[in-house]
């Protein structure tokens, strides 16, 4: 059986980070693929229950462009990854789950901006605006000192911008907390931020 590991590096092409998959301590993705941004990668249920798992994306940084996926097959003793060439990697279930758990809960790779996003998103998780738009993601990487929130309803995106100091994650958390408190006091729907990108189109969280 092989050993699996996960490493984190910045991805300048996509203005985010990437999970590099290590098989027997060697980079398995190779030079032609970027890894998936850590929050997106570890949110995939296929990691824990099996199914199709997105593991790589095009060098341009866009998911959906030359993606690489594997089929994950799990049982009590082993986890198999089967790629598009029908080649297989087999890992001990115990080693696989331990490596995945450690990597999922390792935030040492985060910049202050990424920490701000994660902590603000935790505060906003499950929030639904009065007009039915549900919280999707938070990004600090679209504009300086702006915490950009994305909400989605029936495939239409609404953008809400909050101000933070651009340095301290606590500042972003305070803005998110204030926003949630204000929602409880409002009876009208919030208007989306002006601009062509909010007219029924979905902005990526990192662009």
**Per the principal axes of the C-alpha atoms, what is the gross shape?**
elongated
Which regions contain 5 or more consecutive residues with pLDDT less than 50?
Answer: 187-202
Task: Provide mean pLDDT, rounded.
Answer: 90
Strand content: 25-35%
Tell me about the largest β-sheet. Answer: 4 strands, antiparallel
Number of strands: 10
- By secondary-structure content and strand pairing, the structural class works out as alpha+beta
Instruction: Please report the number of helical segments.
Output: 5
**Separation of termini?**
39 Å
Major sheet: arrangement of strands: 4-5-6-7
Taking all Cα atoms into account, the compactness measure Rg is 19 Å
User: What pattern of helices and strands is seen along the backbone?
Assistant: EEEHHEEEEHHEEEH
Helix content: 10-25%
Give a written overview of the molecule.
It is a single chain. The protein is 24% helix and 30% strand. Helix 4 runs parallel beside helix 5. The protein has 207 residues and is an alpha+beta fold. The strands form three sheets. The protein has a four-stranded antiparallel β-sheet with strand order 4-5-6-7. The protein is built from five helices and ten strands, in the order βββααββββααβββα.
């Amino acid at each position: 059986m092989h050993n699996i590991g996960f490493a984190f590096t910045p991805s300048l092409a996509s203005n985010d980070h990437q999970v590099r998959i290590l098989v027997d301590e060697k980079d398995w993705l190779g030079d032609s693929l970027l890894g998936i941004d850590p929050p997106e990668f570890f949110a995939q249920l296929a990691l824990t229950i099996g199914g199709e798992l997105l593991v790589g994306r095009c060098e341009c940084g866009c998911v959906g462009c030359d993606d690489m996926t594997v089929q994950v097959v799990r049982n009590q003793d082993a986890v198999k990854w089967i790629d598009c060439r029908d080649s297989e990697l087999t890992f001990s279930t115990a080693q696989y789950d331990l490596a995945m758990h450690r990597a999922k809960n390792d935030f040492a790779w985060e910049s202050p901006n990424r920490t701000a996003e994660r902590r603000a998103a935790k505060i906003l998780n499950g929030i639904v605006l009065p007009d039915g738009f549900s919280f999707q993601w938070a990004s600090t990487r679209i504009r300086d000192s702006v915490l950009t929130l994305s909400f989605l309803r029936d495939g239409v995106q609404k953008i809400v911008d909050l101000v933070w100091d651009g340095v301290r994650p606590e500042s972003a958390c305070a803005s998110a907390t204030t926003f949630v408190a204000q929602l409880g006091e409002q009876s009208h729907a919030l208007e989306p931020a002006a601009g062509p990108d909010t007219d029924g189109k979905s902005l990526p969280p990192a662009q």
